[in-house]
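User: Hi! I'm working on a homework problem where we have to compare a predicted structure to a textbook description. Could you give me the structure for the chain below?
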Amino acid sequence: MLSGGFGSSVARLLQESGHSDVQVKNIGVPDIFVEHGTQAGLRSKYGLDAGGIAGEILTLFPKSAQKLPFKVEGKASKA
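Assistant: Happy to help. Predicted structure tokens:
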């Protein structure tokens, strides 16, 4: 879950340690009812599979992403 998840803890730790110049992007399952399904299916739906995670990372580095010799396919997180 996004709210109160691992990313929230990392962001809080960085802030408390004085590392406010670090960019953090939380990804995860949104705070909604999530239906049952396979792990692979749900990871894909919420952008938490390899392609989705890579796509989210590349949004933080758009100039670098344009230089890649390949295209990352994946659904952006619905968070």
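For your comparison, note the following. Helices lie at 6-16, 39-45, 50-59, 62-66. Residues 6-66 form one domain. Good luck with the assignment!
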